[in-house]
Amino acid sequence: MDMPPTRLSRNKKAVLIGLGILWYGLFNYITDYIPVGDSSLRPAVVILTVFGAYFGPFSGFLIGLAGTFLSDLLSGQVWWIWILANGVIGLFSGFISCHDGFDLGRGQVAPIHYVWLAIWGIAGNLLGLVMAAVVDLISGTPGVTLMGWAIIPAVVNCFWIVSTGIPIVALIAKRQKEAVERE
């Protein structure tokens, strides 16, 4: 269930989600050539954290899926299972919006929500990336290892979520709360 911020029209929400797809895709493409394990550095996961928290799991999934498809198209190699894996990461990032009392659009975020945001981010990364690596291992994709293609990148992504994604969500919550109080 997507819980859109109450103050945004459907058109503004669609535009922002479109921008999320574009930013995620371009930022993934730009950092695709920086190695981490046998994969690449993906600080763009912060975009999934922020947009998923703001717009919900379906929107997070869509941004992860379409954004990764865009970056794969730009790089000239489409990896469908990894596109789906990034959709799963976005989906899990949005689960926080289903928690009682969480409404980022109004700045209603309790300290426990930040803990849950980290938990959902970690779970989504591990599930999505391990799932994709296992499918590649089963299908015989050469050079794939669970550690290099899933575990190490998931740990690095979790670092980005905790060190950058959660503080950005906290800043958005503070700003939104102040805006609601001024109304």
Automatic annotation (TrEMBL):
Instruction: Indicate yes or no for the key word Transmembrane helix.
Output: yes
Pfam families to which the protein is assigned, alphabetical: ECF-ribofla_trS
Any one annotated GO CC term = membrane
Sorted UniProt keywords: Membrane, Transmembrane, Transmembrane helix
Bilayer-spanning residue ranges: 14-31, 43-67, 79-102, 114-135, 147-173
Its recorded name reads: ECF transporter S component
Species whose genome carries this gene = Brevibacillus composti
